[in-house]
Amino acid sequence: MTNRKTLDSIKNRLNNLSPHERINGLELVGIDKDPNGDIVIVSKQYVPMGKNSGEAWQEVYPEGDPRRVKWEGNA
Description:
By secondary structure, the protein is an alpha+beta fold.
């Protein structure tokens, strides 16, 4: 499938979403390696999209912060 066809397919799927299925924003998770080599979550950020999506926010977790936890996702 060409890039254009792929983008058109994505656009069509998004256009057919009902209002409760639509994406209102993105939540991004920042990761880094700790001294032990484990991947840990070091920040979170929300980026609103469209109207009525809320406020943008960002949290950064310094060393020792209990929210700085090992990432359990796929590496």
